[in-house]
Design brief:
By secondary structure, this protein is mainly alpha-helical. The protein has a single domain, classed as Hypothetical protein af1432. 59% of the residues lie in helices and 0% in strands. The protein has ten helices and no strands. Helix 2 crosses helix 8, helix 3 packs across helix 7 and helix 6 runs antiparallel to helix 7. The radius of gyration is 18 Å and the shape is globular.
Length: 212
């Protein structure tokens, strides 16, 4: 019996080590993605945290919260396949360059689709630029055709883009970000998850949810 317990303990230790290693690899990949552009430094981590909190507030299980966190971390991994000079360009993109940028969700989904332990990873990568009214990309999905996790990440991603510095502007004022989310309900964003993000904004009295 003691030998059985010892073996079980070793197996559990090995499993925890694999889980820690997997998380460390995903965080390293997210850091690599963000490092391609100084104006997206920390973006993937913030998106992951906002998405996790949105799912917690909507009643998602601990396992679902963990999954959406990892999806958020790697939602932009497809940018690995986009030339740095396009990612870092501070002036307007040409039509050809914009088409290349718009390919990153498909590239990301193809990178992640074979990770069987967290099969949903590819979901966040492929569909975080879909819009609730069907005008997004790459597949033009509409409403509840868009997977729930992708709808959550889409709101978190857009929020962080507005609450972060860009080459052409500083962090937007919190009230402006709130208004943009409100105006995008039913158009760019799932109204339910947009309302949860607005609730988070209203709770964030000191505007801590932003790039600092």
């Amino acid at each position: 019996m003691e030998e059985l317990e010892r073996m079980r303990g070793k197996a559990e230790d090995a499993e925890r080590k694999v889980e820690r290693l997997s998380e460390q690899i995903m965080k390293a990949l997210a850091s690599t993605i963000d490092a391609k552009d100084k104006y997206t430094n920390g973006h993937s981590f913030r998106v992951a945290e906002y998405a996790e909190e949105m799912l917690r507030r909507s009643g998602g299980s601990v396992k679902e919260q963990e999954e959406v966190y990892y999806m958020g971390l790697l939602h932009d991994i497809g940018k690995i396949g986009i030339p740095d000079e396009i990612i870092r360009k501070t002036s307007g993109l040409t039509e050809k360059e914009y088409t290349l940028i718009k390919s990153h969700p498909v590239i990301g989904a193809n990178i992640l689709k074979n990770i069987s332990e967290i099969p949903g990873l590819a979901v966040g990568a492929r569909w975080h630029h879909e819009k609730y009214d069907g005008t997004g990309y790459p597949d033009g999905l509409k409403g509840e055709e868009i997977p729930v996790m992708a709808r959550i990440i889409a709101v978190a991603d857009a929020y962080d883009a507005m609450a972060s510095r860009r080459s052409y502007r500083d962090v937007l004022p919190q009230k402006v970000v709130r208004e943009e989310l409100k105006n995008g309900k039913g158009k760019q964003f799932d109204p339910y998850y947009a309302d949860i993000m607005i609730e988070m904004i209203d709770d964030d009295k000191d505007y801590q949810m932003r790039e600092v």
